[in-house]
Amino acid sequence: MSRMPTVDDVAQAAGVSRQTVSNVLNSPEIVREATRQRVLEAISRLGYRPHASARRLRTRKSATIGVRIDPWRDGISGAVLDRFLHKLTEHADARGLRVMVFSAADPDDELARIRRLREGSDVDAFVLTATTHGDERIRALTEQGVPFVAFGRPWDPETSAVRHRWVDVDGRAGVAGAVRHLREQGARRVGWIGWPHGSGTGDERRAGWEAECGVDADARAALARHVEDGVTEGSRAAAELLALPEPPDAIVCASDSLALGAMIAARTAGRPALPVVGFDDTPVAAAVGLSSIEQPLDDVVAAALDLLFGPAGDDVRPNPSSDEEPTDRLLAPRLVERRPGHLALDAIPGT
Amino acid sequence: MSRMPTVDDVAQAAGVSRQTVSNVLNSPEIVREATRQRVLEAISRLGYRPHASARRLRTRKSATIGVRIDPWRDGISGAVLDRFLHKLTEHADARGLRVMVFSAADPDDELARIRRLREGSDVDAFVLTATTHGDERIRALTEQGVPFVAFGRPWDPETSAVRHRWVDVDGRAGVAGAVRHLREQGARRVGWIGWPHGSGTGDERRAGWEAECGVDADARAALARHVEDGVTEGSRAAAELLALPEPPDAIVCASDSLALGAMIAARTAGRPALPVVGFDDTPVAAAVGLSSIEQPLDDVVAAALDLLFGPAGDDVRPNPSSDEEPTDRLLAPRLVERRPGHLALDAIPGT
DNA sequence: TCCGCCGATTTGATCGATCAAATCTTTGCT
DNA sequence: AGCAAAGATTTGATCGATCAAATCGGCGGA
Fold it and tell me: Could you count the other beta carbons within 10 Å of the beta carbon of residue B162?
C-alpha cells in the first residue's frame, strides 16, 4: 500500500469499526481487553499513526505550545532563555506535546502572531518569557481568552490584578542564600554589583543581598554598584570596589557577565582568590570556573506545564478566573560553587 | 458570532461560493478583480483566518519546518545553533512558514521523532544541524523521501555520494582570511589553537591557517596546539605557545572559547595587546572585545530555505535526484575586528 | 441567429479523524 | 427464563478546507 494507513484500514484489518480503533487510542478503558489487543496488533502491524491534522480539525486542539524566541541576545545571559527553550521541548515531548517557535518585532507584533497561530488551531497555549513592568501581553491575552503561562512574575500591581498563571525564580532568595553562604565561609564584607534600579528582576536580586549582607546602610551604599549588564561594566565596577579603603572580601553579581568582569578585575588587582558569584550559571561561568546561582529550569518548566495542562495530560485548562486555587509558582534557585582559579593560570609554565 | 468564521461564512457574506473564497486566497489570478475585492472585503470585515489544520488535512502540507535543538553543549559555541534557530524563525516567518522544534536523545531517536512529525503532516521538511562524519541521518532521510536540508557539509565520501541539499560555512576560507589579514597588519608568526584531528569542521579551519601562515612545516608544528574545546584548555595552550623561544605574535583559534582562554593567558603573560582571533562571534566575544570570525547565518538560513522551497513560496521541493542542478551552498564567513584591551582594565583606578 | 469556446464560478466529493447517538451484547437480578 | 441496566461496538454526521468536475455566462465566428 502506497498511502499511509488510516483508522479505516486498521479497523478492517482488526475486524472492528473505525470508532473502536479510535477508542483504543483515546479511551482504552471503554474497550474490551481482547479487542484492544487485536486492534493494537493491527496498528503495529500496519504501522498506523494517527494523522495529527485530521485529529486537530475535529477536536480543535493541537497539543502544541508556542514560544517566542527573542532576537536581542547581546548579553551572555540571553542563554537562559535558550536553555529554557530546550528544557521546554524535553518536557513537552515527554507529555506528547509539540513546541512551535516564532519571532516577533515587538509586543504588538507578538500578539498579532499569537492570534494567528491560535486561530488555525496551530497552537493551543503559549509561554510568555521575559515579562516586564506594565506588560501589555498579559492583559491582552487574558481578555482574548488565550491560554498562557508567563515565565516571570507580574512586576506591577496592575498586572498582578489580572489573574493569570505564572512561574518565576525567587532571585531574592537565591542571592540571599549565596550571601549567607559566603559569610558562613568567613566573608565579612560582601559586595554587590547589580543593574540600575527599575528592573524588577534586578531589584529583587539586590534585595536578597541587602537582607543578608549584615552591614549598615552606609556600608551598603559603599559596597554596592549599579551598572548596565556587561563584562566591561562589571570589571570596572569591581575594580572600584576593590580600590576602596575597606574593600569587599567577596562579591555577588546580578549576572554572569558582571561576574566575569569582576573576576577578571580581581585577578588584575592581585586578588585571584576573591570569591565572586554570578547569576544564571551560564556556560561561560562553567567554562571559567565561576560560582553562580542556577535557575532550576527543569522545575520551572515542569511547573509551567502543570499550570497549563494539569499534572498530566495534554488538555489545556482555560485561563483561571478570579477565585480559584493558586495559579503561580515561585521556585528557589541553587548556588553552584566552583573554585576560583580553576582557570589554572597559575599552573602555566612561565608564570 | 461565537465561533470563528469559515469559508462558508465569508462566501455568504460576499455573495459567492466557498470555492471562490478559497481561490481568492490560493489562486487570486483566476478570480475576476471585482469579485476578488468583494471577497477580500468580506474576509477582513469578518476577520476570517483559514483554519490551518483543515487546510493541511486536505493539501497534505503543513508549511512547517522542523529543527532539532540540541541538549545543552557546555561550550560557549553552542550559541551558534541558537542564533541559527532564531534567524531561521525570522526568515521562515517572512515566507509564511512555521518552525517546530523538538529534542532527541540520539540520532536514532531523532529519526524516530522526525518520522512521527511527518506522518501527521505536522512538518513538511527538516533542517539537520551539526552533521558529523558518517552521519546516518542523511542516508536514512533520503531513503525515506523526507525532504531536508543539512546545515553542515557531508564529511565523508560515503555521505557525499548520497545526493542531498546542504549549506555550510567555509571555515577554511574564513581562517585563511583572518591569518592573511593579521600578516598584513605586521604579524610574522601566527599561532593556531584548534581541536584534536578528526572533526571535519576543525580540520577545515586548521587547513585555512596552514595555507596562509607562511612558515615551514617545522615552524607550523611548533606554532600549533590541538586541544579539546574550552576556556581552560585554550588558556593553557596559549600559555605554552607564549613560553616558546620564538613565541607567536598573533593567535587564531578554532572557537571563541579557546580564544577567550588565549586572551586571558596573553594578559597574564604580560602581552595584553597580542591579537587573538576566535570563531563564531559569540556574545562572549563581543562582551570581552575579542576579534572573531562570524558565520553569515542570515545567508546560511536564506540559502537553506531557497534549497528547500525554491526562491520564493512555501511548496517543498522533493529531495534532489542524482542529476540535477547544484544542491549545496558554501558561504564565506567574515572577520569581525575588535580592539584587544577593550576590557578597559588599564583604565581602572588603582591599577 | 446559433454554436462553440473559454474564462469565471459553483457543486459534489474528499482528506482522516472524533463526537453523538443508535444498536448490539453481556451481565445481573428476580 | 425474562428483562432491564450496564457495557461494548457500530453508524451517521461533522470539523474546515481544497480538489475535480460540472455549470454558467459572455463573446466571436460562421
Answer: 16
Residues in chain B within 8 Å Cβ distance of A96: none
B chain contacts of residue A71, beta-carbon cutoff 8 Å: 86, 90
- Backbone torsion region of residue B332, taken as left when φ is above 0, otherwise alpha when ψ lies between -120 and 50, otherwise beta: beta
Instruction: Please state the rounded mean pLDDT for residues A306-319.
Output: 81
Mean pLDDT computed over B311-329: 76
Provide the CA B26 to C1' C2 distance, Å, integer. Answer: 37
pLDDT (tens digit, 9 = 90+) per residue, A88-116? 999 998 888 899 999 988 889 999 889 88
pLDDT average, residue stretch A71-95: 77
- Asked if A98 and B98 come within 8 Å (Cβ–Cβ), the reply is no
Give, to the nearest 10 degrees, the angle between helix A79-95 and helix A297-309. 50
CATH 1.10.1660.10 for domain A7-50: no
Q: How far apart are CA B303 and CA A270, in angstroms?
A: 50
Give me the residue from B69, B122, B287 closest to A52, CB to CB.
B122
Nearest CB to A232; choose among B257, B264, B343? B343
Query: d(Cα A53, Cα B55) in Å, to the nearest integer?
Result: 9
Task: Give me the mean pLDDT over the B60-83 stretch.
Answer: 77
- Tell which CATH architecture fits domain B171-295+336-347: 3-Layer(aba) Sandwich (3.40)
Indicate the residue of A52, A236, A351 with minimum beta-carbon distance to B348: A236
Cβ distance B242 to A103 less than 8 Å, yes or no, reads no
Cell numbers for B286, please give them.
563581543
Measured between alpha carbons, how far is B163 from B321 in angstroms, rounded to an integer? 7
> What is the mean predicted confidence (pLDDT) over B312-339?
82
pLDDT in tens, A213-254: 999 999 999 999 999 998 889 999 999 999 999 999 999 999
Which residues in chain A are closer than 8 Å to B289, comparing Cβ atoms? Answer: 232
H or E stretch at A137: helix A136-144
Architecture of domain B1-47: Orthogonal Bundle (1.10)
CA of A248 to C1' of C3 (A): 102
Where are the domains positioned within chain B? 1-47, 64-162+297-331, 171-295+336-347
Kindly report the bases of strand C lying within 7 A of a protein C-beta atom. 7-12, 14-21
Do domains B64-162+297-331 and B171-295+336-347 share one topology? The answer is yes
Pick from A302, A321, A298: which is nearest to A310 by CA?
A302
Per residue in A8-47, pLDDT (tens digit) is: 999 999 999 999 999 999 999 999 999 999 999 999 999 9
What's the CATH fold of domain A64-162+297-330?
Rossmann fold (3.40.50)
Please provide the CATH number assigned to the domain covering B64-162+297-331: 3.40.50.2300
List all residues of chain B from 128 to 167 with a beta carbon under 8 Å from chain A. none
